[in-house]
Amino acid sequence: MRIRGYVSLLALAALALGGCAQQSSEVTPEVSPVTQAGPVQIEWLDPNKYTDITSSSELQSRFSQRVFDTLTANLAQVATPVLEPNEKLQLVVTNVDLAGDVRPTFGAALNDIRIVSNLYPPRITFTYKVLSGNQVVMSGSEKLQNLGFLDGIQPIIERPFMYESALLTTWFNQTLAPTLQGTPPQ
Fold it and tell me: Lower Cβ count inside 10 Å, N or C end of the chain?
């Protein structure tokens, strides 16, 4: 009878440990979320495979959605005045590497921390299309990064994901805006 009790206890312990070992460290479920703001639509293709979209303090799925929403809204803010009413900008993002690197605090603090330095520049890889109605006006693919993102004067007030937003804003203003407004890009 005692052996049966030990076997049952061992089986329960194995199940409990097995359940802990199966805890997922995925960024989000296997889905490609789509965000839209004004004329800008972004599909975030397989975010589980992105280089670095790691949260340091909040629930990972909520953090990922906040990144997607913020970058879409910031790009829409720049694109809306340039695009004609019947034009849309569509991006399919295939990789994101947020500025900085998340480091564990090993119990010294409640959460991990993101160390931001020039060693860890922001990077974004995507394809894009500008549509006028259903007709493709422009398309291409980009692999953006800014190795000197901390050079120069830094703002006193930091905005969420400001380095990644700056990558997209600079790209739009230097690549798409001149062509859409009738002047060649420099």
Answer: N
Residue 157, class by beta-carbon neighbours within 10 Å (0-12 exposed, 13-18 middle, 19+ buried)? Answer: exposed
Sheet with 34-37, side-by-side order of all strands: 34-37, 40-44, 87-97, 123-132, 135-145
Q: What does the pLDDT look like over 42-66, one tens digit per residue?
A: 999 999 999 988 888 888 889 999 9
> Which residues, 6 or more positions from 155, have their beta carbon under 8 angstroms from its beta carbon?
162
Phi, psi (degrees; rounded to nearest 5) at 177: -55, -50
How far is it, in rounded angstroms, from Cα 58 to Cα 107? 16
Please answer whether residues 125 and 95 qualify as being in contact, where contact means their C-beta atoms are separated by less than 8 angstroms.
yes
Which is it for the CA torsion 104, 109, 111, 116, positive or negative? Answer: negative
Question: Which residues does 50 contact at the CB level (< 8 Å), separation at least 6?
Answer: 27, 95, 96, 97
Q: Could you tell me whether strands 40-44 and 87-97 are parallel, antiparallel, or unpaired per DSSP bridges?
A: parallel
